[in-house]
Amino acid sequence: MALAMGRVKPTKGFLIELKKRIAFIEEGYRLLKLKREELAKTIRSYLEFLEAKRADFETKIEKALSEMRNAYAFLGSSEVETQINPLEMLTIQVYPKSVMGCLIPYVKEINKVKVRLNPVLRSVAKKFEALIDDLVKMAEIESSIERIAEELGATNRKVNALEKYVIPELKRSAKYIEDMLDEEMLEEVIRTKIVRNKLTGRRA
User: Fold this and answer.
1) Any idea what DSSP says for residue 17?
2) pLDDT at residue number 1
3) How far is the first Cα of the chain from the last one, in angstroms, to the nearest whole number?
4) Biggest alpha carbon distance in the chain?
5) Domains (ranges, CATH) in the chain?
6) Over the stretch 116-126, which tens digit does the pLDDT of each residue have?
7) Which residues lie below 8 Å from residue 74, measured CB to CB, with a gap of 6+?
8) Could you tell me which of 86, 82, 104 has the C-alpha nearest to residue 95?
9) Quick one: which of 156, 75, 147, 85 has its CA closest to 114?
10) What single DSSP character describes residue 87?
11) What is the rounded average pLDDT of the residues 67-77?
12) Which residues lie below 8 Å from residue 123, measured CB to CB, with a gap of 6+?
């Protein structure tokens, strides 16, 4: 009761303001709980997506490597290496994206890798291009999960602090003021009654 005894003013005006503050904090607490639920839901969704993406990636890379080995066998290593010099390199841009106030990365490919290839290598290149797209997406999701997890932890700590300490302490303070005001009112009623009785006795 240190807060109540040390800082609380037992007045009706202070009690009204304190109750308004409690209502405001409880609304913030409710919104933080909603944010926590939404962040947790987003993480679960991203983890499911990432797991499926990784499984699909493993299948794709096996097929791409198999085709690459066949291309080397068919064309020879010197021919393959001559053609794989890129005309343009991959260029990406990272933008911020907000999820419940948490900034996560959104990766956009500006330029894809461009090379001049014969038909045999063009098919292989398409598969590796798809693999690069998948890698970029998985990196984006992994980074997003990490940042959302940090935000979720911070939000959870705020919710717990409000639920276990801040709101209960404020409510105890409000109860303390109400009790003090009731006690003062009762004392005033008793004093008024005593004075009235004395006045009545003097008149008699």
Assistant:
1) H
2) 41
3) 49
4) 129
5) 2-195 (1.10.287.3240)
6) 677 778 788 88
7) 120
8) 104
9) 85
10) S
11) 84
12) 67
Give yes or no for a contact between 148 and 114, defined as CB atoms under 8 angstroms apart: no
DSSP state of 100: T
Rounded alpha-carbon distances, angstroms, from residue 60 to 24, 82, 113, 117: 53, 25, 18, 21
Q: Is 10 exposed, middle or buried (0-12, 13-18, 19+ CB in 10 A)?
A: middle
CB 107 within 8 A of CB 140: yes
- The tokens for 165 are 């300490």
Rounded Cα distance, 128 and 62, in Å:
11
Question: DSSP code of 40?
Answer: H
Pair of tokens at residue 204: 């008699």
Both tokens of residue 18?
A: 């304190």
Where do we find the tokens 């907000």?
Answer: 98
- Angle 30-32-37 (CA atoms, 0-180°, nearest 5)? 100
d(CA 100, CA 38): 8
Residue 167 has pLDDT above 70, yes or no: yes
